Amino acid sequence: MTTNTERGLDTALEYLREHDERxxxxxxxxxxxxxxxxxxxxxxxVERAARWIADELTRIGAEHAQIHExxxxxxxxxxxxxxxxxxxxxxxxxxxxVQPTDPLDEWIRPPFEPRYEDGRVYARGSGDDKGQLxxxxxxxxxxxxxxxxxxxNLRFFFEGDEEVGSEPIEQFITxxxxxxxxxxxxxxxxxxxxxxxxxxxxxxxRGIAYFEVKxxxxxxxxxxxQYGGGVDNPANVLxxxxxxxxxxxxxxxxxxxxxxxxxLTDAERTAYAELPFDERAWxxxxxxxxxxxxxxxxxxxxxxxxxxxxxxxGLWGGYSGEGSKTIIPAWAAAKVSTRLVPDQxxxxxxxxxxxxxxxxxxxxxxVDVKVIHGGAPALTDLDSTAVRLGxxxxxxxxxxxxxxxxxxxxxxxxxALEKQTGLKSLLIGFASxxxxxxxxxxxxxxxxxxxxxxALVRLWQEFGSASRDELRAD
Amino acid sequence: MTTNTERGLDTALEYLREHDERxxxxxxxxxxxxxxxxxxxxxxxVERAARWIADELTRIGAEHAQIHExxxxxxxxxxxxxxxxxxxxxxxxxxxxVQPTDPLDEWIRPPFEPRYEDGRVYARGSGDDKGQLxxxxxxxxxxxxxxxxxxxNLRFFFEGDEEVGSEPIEQFITxxxxxxxxxxxxxxxxxxxxxxxxxxxxxxxRGIAYFEVKxxxxxxxxxxxQYGGGVDNPANVLxxxxxxxxxxxxxxxxxxxxxxxxxLTDAERTAYAELPFDERAWxxxxxxxxxxxxxxxxxxxxxxxxxxxxxxxGLWGGYSGEGSKTIIPAWAAAKVSTRLVPDQxxxxxxxxxxxxxxxxxxxxxxVDVKVIHGGAPALTDLDSTAVRLGxxxxxxxxxxxxxxxxxxxxxxxxxALEKQTGLKSLLIGFASxxxxxxxxxxxxxxxxxxxxxxALVRLWQEFGSASRDELRAD
Lengths: 474, 474
Description:
Two copies of one chain form a homodimer. The first copy, chain A, has helices at residues 2-18, 20-31, 43-60, 130-147, 167-175, 224-227, 234-243, 266-274, 279-286, 300-305, 346-359, 385-398, 412-421, 446-464, 468-472; strands spanning 63-68, 75-80, 89-95, 115-117, 120-122, 153-159, 184-187, 200-205, 207-216, 222-223, 309-318, 327-328, 331-340, 366-375, 378-379, 403-407, 425-428, 443-445. With 474 residues, chain A is an alpha+beta fold. In chain A, strands 1, 2, 3, 6, 7, 8, 15, 16 and 17 form a nine-stranded mixed beta sheet that branches. A four-stranded antiparallel beta sheet of chain A has the order 11-13-9-14. In chain A, a hairpin with a 6-residue loop joins strand 1 and strand 2 (75-80). The radius of gyration of chain A is 24 Å and the shape is globular. The relative contact order of chain A is 0.18.
């Protein structure tokens, strides 16, 4: 048997190499579909992307490809379950929707006309996440068409709402659990460690609690000469309230906020300290001269992924036109969000924040606090079989072992699957950490694209060597 | 002579009463012209208002009525200089432009269709300041047409840019000083003390220094999950910086800000304390439950007019749409202004503010501070002859002596005339302190309108009894 699957692996890898040119043409076709989930006018394009995927799944030999209508955009599922009942089943998750392209004039080429340059492919979605979804299709094809079968059972779960909050997935997981039944979920929506070919396994994700706050004063804008000094200005009050949410050590002041934060172990801190990190290159990539102290007592890398944050995401109210308008505005508002780490509970944080923000409001104003959305943080056990096998597959493909990283953002499906079905996720992704996700001129290194498909082909081989129980173990 | 002018006064007052109905028709016609200086599309209407005034000046017997083109809207001047060379010359200042009418749907009737109800006239400009300008035309007419001559020499100076900052007046004062040569300027752009017929002389105006500030972080919006905790968020920094501009006693923290503030004398504080003031009615008029502490150690009335302030007039930056966008914004901005009191120098305050705001910026961000506009505070000597005569005229018309008040806002012409020509101003106005200037449903009490014309007729009589030197004395 071992000889058989090893021959299967070689055949699958060979199939990938032989179809490289055709695959690139297909990638180009897929990236040209402007599947921007935030743009209502592009809804037909998002649907076209879903159909493209379903057709391709069928073509490569997956079965039961289906497009499911949801409250948002379609979810695409399919499966191939012929590896044997004793073999593990892997649920493959990616998303096919992409971020909006604003500001469009900062793109060197139109975002949906991929260009191949300097060993990169530039296009919206090339890294986040259509490029990675496409790699999964091709890795599965290499097994099913090249080797004739796969070493594991495969299920596919592709959504079109990740960039707008993944609203429909909870309902879908509840409604159609049989389509997602698996021993492990493989999520590819993260990045490699650097642009030097160092692969990564992402073992932590931050959660989120997102709020909108509004401070109301006089029932209409009033003249700042006539009333200034006599009436509490809602914009002055709002900035004081927001400023008070962090102390001078960069810590969030909401009482109880840190109660459930799992502190970094000495081993984790040592691992963080040993991660190669070019802080200057990182700063240059976003155009800041200094990174700031942030929360005191933690390194930049720790603060970026292992510590909770509080950010003002938007501010508005009063006069913002040309010149001057001498008013005390009737109200001022802000979007505020906190990133959460294990074991913070986003619903508890939501409650604490709302109570705190109301409590600190002076009696001269009225305050609205709305919870916009929340998501739980996640952490994978580094000693698990899945992590070990993932590391072997990555080392096989890239010639060096992966580094282990936490990611600052959140991927809602990870928390939703675990909470609703108990299914654990392994996060292996291939985008560049500097790849301009959510920004103009998004790009993906071609080396990651080819290496990533190689790694995925190897990963199914590795998973096929494990028992279902081993893969399910935390 | 005394008998003659007293007979003149009676005749002028009688002329007013006889023409009350015709005057109201003319007022209606004048208020119907939508002379909104901030609206470029209404430029022809602003010009129509200027022509209406110039025609009326000529009709009532003033001479040399002229419409002067400026960098903004027209300035209208005229004179009547036949009282004798030994008689004082009074420069009468009002403005004929009005505030915009937004939000239009909160007006009970269209703003340029005056309605007469409950002893009030409702219309944009009824109080601020077209109604008052019209009263001056009719008071002058009463003397020139009714009595055949006036007891003082009169010059008229009416501008069309007061609601947008009075930009053109400095240049006009420099270019045409001969048209404004006078012994005193009478400015009618203020209000009475209450709605119970208590007249007022406004002896203090606050100045202003108005800024736009912008805090820049990363060169574009970045993902708050990926970068949160590692990069100083410009919106977080801005709210901290703005919040720090006032301490917990409500005092402005810009170093040197209070150095030149003329402190209230005990007599002034006693006078403030004795002013009748219904704080609850005041709060109700703007819909706030509590007025707030403001600057500690000062009463509400003192804070409203005799103390400097700092107000955030507008905030913007980052995401303000529906739902959430998980970004650290590239920048965040605010409009900030300070109201100034004697003897603060607005140019010095501008310098101090700009230096301070740059100094408190952390090294992780870049800061732009723009000075938008400034204006000097003003204070009239309460012991002057002009004030005494003004008080007599007001008592004659309203049956009770005026109260003396400082006003929280600024009237740019007052500072400009004094700075450029040394001419002092006396501020006597007739609007209601609750008259919704700059807000929907602006209104003027008919009692103030009729009493005000009566007072102005008497004022020229009083001024005619004084020497030029007495009126010029500070």
